[in-house]
Structures are given as structure tokens and as C-alpha cells.
Design brief:
This protein is an all-alpha fold and 270 residues long. It is built from 14 helices and four strands. A two-stranded antiparallel ribbon has the order 1-2. Strands 3-4 form a two-stranded antiparallel sheet. A hairpin with a 2-residue loop joins strand 1 and strand 2. The longest helix is centred in the last third of the chain and has 18 residues.
């Protein structure tokens, strides 16, 4: 595959709700492709293919690429992939986040908005540090605070104008009262079945009015966890002709064994 094709694929993946279909290649074939790769983009695409078939042995290579690349498009996709496959231990290691110290506004915004897909309270210290460092860039502050609030719901208790130290204190108390070794969607232990209910409720309302789905995070998370793409995205118009596709999708999810509070990538438990 030519480099130009990979660049186009990078842009497509950055704008997609998931990382594409699973590869039919074996782990050894994909690893061979990684060794033969000429560009960073080729390496990254083959790493994604490897992770999609449940082989996470080369995660260190992703972290190295994320912290060494000078290509912002590659970096932004690395960030998205890393947060999707990162465990609590990956997130606790601050050496994995060296790229943040030299990040552009675009990189910081990408990281802050994608942070919720980590599903881990261990991402919050990095967001707090960024909030302090980028406190004069109002759009970035909003994105960072929204992601912290997604996990903690701090605005409900200490207000949206809370300063970094106050949010930090709230975070430490929150961690004392919750299991930081579990994964969360908002303030609940994450569970695909719970998100599927929210999705179907929105689908039925949208179908009645023949309006767009207007749901971003849940379709993306479900697609990435399961490796099966939700049959629509934010702008998909829901109608009598397609809402049953969502019902069938949810029914397919319900027959699998998901553990509450655990994190998955393409059906594989991390």
C-alpha cells in the first residue's frame, strides 16, 4: 500500500467512530508488516490491526511512536488508539505521556476530548496538570473541564468555576470513595448493556421524529469495545426503515458475556 493511501486512511480513522473492520491476517503476518514498514503511518496502521485481533504485545511500540513522532496527524491518531487500549497501569506511568509537555493546542484538545474513552480515573491527574498549564486558552480549558466533569460530576457539587486546586481536592476524595481499579462511564461502572439502553432510547425518540441520532460518544465506545460498528453515527437520520438495524445490533451485544467495570477493545478484555 502506498504512503499516500495510508495518509488518507489516517484522516478517515481520525473522523470515524471506530478503527475499522478486523484484519484477516495472522499476528505473525501483521508483525512482519510492522518490521517492513517504511513510514510511521504504516507502523501505526499495522499496530491497530494487531490490537484489533487481541494481540497487545506491541503496545510499547505505540507509546514510543506517540512520544517521538513530529507528525501531528499521526500523533492525534496515536492518542486516540492509546486511550482506547490503555489499562490503568498504562495510565499511571507518566513516562507514557511525555508528548503532552510539547503538545500544540490541537494535540492537547485531542487528548482532553479523547480522555473519556480511557474510562479510567487515572487519567484525571494529567487533565488537572493541563488545566493549570493551559488556563489562558478558554476553548482548551472548556474541553479539559468537560472531560474531568464527565468522570467526577464536580460541577454539580463545587460549581463550574471551581479552580484547579478545588477540583484536585474533589478528585482525591472521589477516589477514596470509589474503586480506582475499575473502569467508568460517567459515575457508573462501565457496562455495554447500560450504554445500549441509552442508545436504543435515543434511537426510538429520533425514529419517531425522523431526526439525526445526535449521539457521539456511546456509538463510538460500543463500536470500539465490540469490534462491531454501530449501524449509524451522529448525523444518521433515524427512521422506520433503519431503526430495526439498531435493535438487531443491541440484540447481538446482549448474548455476549461482558463484565461490569471492565474495559474491552474489539471484544478482547484489556
Amino acid at each position: 500500500m502506498k504512503a499516500g493511501v495510508f495518509v488518507g486512511k489516517t484522516e478517515n480513522l481520525l473522523n470515524s467512530i471506530w478503527f475499522g473492520e478486523k484484519s484477516t491476517l495472522s499476528p505473525s503476518e501483521i508483525k512482519e508488516n510492522i518490521l517492513k514498514a517504511v513510514t510511521e503511518t504504516e507502523v501505526l496502521f499495522n499496530l491497530i490491526e494487531l490490537y484489533k485481533i487481541g494481540d497487545f504485545t506491541q503496545k510499547t511500540l505505540l507509546i514510543q511512536l506517540m512520544n517521538q513522532t513530529k507528525d501531528e496527524t499521526v500523533l492525534n491518531l496515536c492518542i486516540r488508539v492509546f486511550l482506547a487500549v490503555a489499562t490503568h497501569d498504562d495510565l499511571k506511568d507518566s513516562n507514557n505521556f511525555r508528548f503532552l509537555s510539547e503538545g500544540t493546542e490541537e494535540t492537547i484538545n485531542t487528548f482532553a476530548s479523547a480522555a473519556i474513552t480511557s474510562l479510567s480515573l487515572n487519567i484525571i491527574p494529567y487533565l488537572l496538570a493541563l488545566l493549570e498549564e493551559w488556563n489562558e486558552i478558554s476553548d482548551t480549558v472548556t474541553i479539559i473541564k468537560d472531560s474531568i466533569d464527565f468522570f467526577l460530576d464536580f460541577e454539580e457539587y463545587i460549581g463550574e468555576d471551581a479552580i484547579v486546586d478545588e477540583i484536585g481536592d474533589f478528585y482525591f476524595k472521589y477516589c477514596d470513595e470509589n474503586d480506582t481499579e475499575s473502569y467508568y462511564f460517567q459515575q457508573n461502572l462501565v457496562f455495554p448493556g447500560d450504554l445500549a439502553k441509552k442508545l436504543i432510547q435515543r434511537v426510538m425518540i429520533a425514529a419517531n421524529n425522523e431526526e439525526p441520532l445526535r449521539m457521539e460518544v456511546i456509538p463510538s465506545l460500543l463500536s470500539i469495545w465490540t469490534g462491531e460498528k454501530v449501524p449509524g453515527d451522529y448525523s444518521t437520520i433515524i427512521s422506520a426503515s433503519n431503526y430495526k438495524n439498531f435493535i438487531n445490533y443491541i440484540n447481538g451485544l446482549s448474548i455476549k458475556n461482558w463484565e461490569k467495570g471492565q474495559k474491552y477493545f474489539y471484544g478482547y478484555k484489556l
